[in-house]
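Bumping with the actual sequence this time:
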Amino acid sequence: MESFSLILAIVVVTALAFDFTNGFHDTANAMATTISTGALKPKIAVAMSAGLNLVGAFLSVEVANTISKGLVDEKGIRPEVIFAALVGAILWNLVTWLVGLPSSSSHALMGGLIGATIASAGFGAVHGDVLVTKVLLPAVAAPIVAGIAAMISTRLSYGVDSRTEGKAESEASRKGYRVGQIASAGLVSLAHGTNDAQKTMGIITLALIAGGAIAPGSNPPTWVILSAGLAIALGTYIGGWRIIRTMGTGLTDLEPRQGFAAQTSAATAILASSHLGFSLSTTHVVSGAVMGTGVGRKGGVVRWSTATRMLVAWILTLPAAALVGAGAESVTDLGDWGTAVVAVFLVTSSAAIWKMSRREVVDHTNVVEETEVPAGVVTTAIAAVAPPPSGTIGEDLTATIPAPAGTEPTAPVASVAPPATTV
């Protein structure tokens, strides 16, 4: 077992706390569509996702190595820097969870680490080429690729059975797609474990290297892999119900075949990225896939107002977490008492956010309830220029064109008949 200092133990515990928030923050990525279409009951869905996240954590360490060996200069990093980075990531996760926005836990962690590293060792300690090629470019490309793949898959799935085109799906068809949706949701959960759990493995490994507990360039120890897998699995089982509601019903109205297309496309993109060592945001991928299915279904509607809010959160994630991480590092740099102040701030802020969340509880009992989503600009514009229903033109004109001044309104004449004659 590695030799531990107090600060190193604090960093490991904080990293596992971040992993826990990552789990409940990203449960929606795997299970929101499955829950919203009724393929699985909410509690069963999150339990299944938790188990597969744990399994996925053992399948690869490529993403963990990207964080522990590639993103920042591990030689100039102190454990306090990593602690400050985790503070920025955790607080951003909790704030976006409170408002139900599916933001990226991965980018929150990256942002916190970059900000704390710059505050401690300067810009030169961040490897810009790794940041661009393995974090920023995948962040832009992955949701687009997944969205296009999901759109094509959705159109193909609706086109295969033309007899159901424009009609309610047959019960056999719906059952078939629900089974496929359960399988694809399991694949997304497995992929999530191979990607997101590894980020915590990487950050703990980096802390162990910084604290002198293991040699530079080491792979994550087995106990790190196990603890990170358990933490994210527990967080997943708790269920981020607020974000599940947004992802499942806030973006578009999903049918089983759409859910199947979205999850299959997202899982493929995530697994490919994990194999290449890209620190991918599963949130970006799944959100892009869900929007792709909305565009791909004939008559489908994407709620662009919600999508816009999500995009703003995505853009703000890296800089916001970086600012908090840099501020926390500036305080921890003052000594042990500074580290204690940051720890108290983290605990107090987390408790306050949790208390605010209790004002409107969202859990497995009401996660699929219909919520009023305000119409976006695009939807409003389309409604304004849409032609009126057939058979109502005359009535609409009568209702909208005022009668001449000084005249009494008259009732519409049902028919014109010749006057009766008397013989």
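The tokens above came from a reply further down the thread. Confidence is low (pLDDT under 50) at residues 371-401, 409-417.
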